[in-house]
User: Fold this.
Amino acid sequence: MDHFGTLMFTPRVAAEQAARGSREQYERMLQRPVPDGLGPDEKAFIESRDSFYMASISESGWPYVQHRGGPTGFLKVLGPETIGFADYRGNRQYVSTGNLSGDARVALFLMDYARKARMKIIGHAEVIEAEDAPDLSAQLASKGQGRVERLFTIRVAAFDWNCPQFITPRFTEKEIEAMLGPRMAELQAENADLRARLADYEGGAE
Assistant:
């Protein structure tokens, strides 16, 4: 696995950092040890996602960013340097699939809006027909999503964690339910009790 800064802080990027006063900061970042692979924190974060964004490179040179979503855990860690997910029937544009047939490089953004966390991954993707890898297909399939058509595996070249600045917190229905569920249960119980008291009062008034 490579150092994220080594791959991303190209000479032009370094020149901009130097001109704008941040080069020293990122020189220190480059001194950090290169990770051996995806560790427990990365695995837990990756496998708790229900969506991510993936950029590929087209023949025309334009980047293409695609949103991928599914049940929590649909993106899986297959090894210290490999992640993967199953692909199902969609709008049949096949833009990412076509792009990857000519250039395997991808960049992923994994967002946790509720906790204001962001993980960036760059790597080389491979598209595999599901029928050619039945065991892997079974491993990557998500229940209730239909028939798996193809598989995407990504050999991670580098990754980095971003600071939480400017990430606006957003919450899924499940997260909101977890936060408000106990209080809602209390309110419902109080409401039921008040209704019962009101009914007793009205009955006594007669």
DSSP finds seven helices and seven strands in the chain. The two ends are 80 Å apart (CA to CA). Helices lie at 4-8, 11-19, 23-30, 40-46, 95-100, 134-140, 173-205.
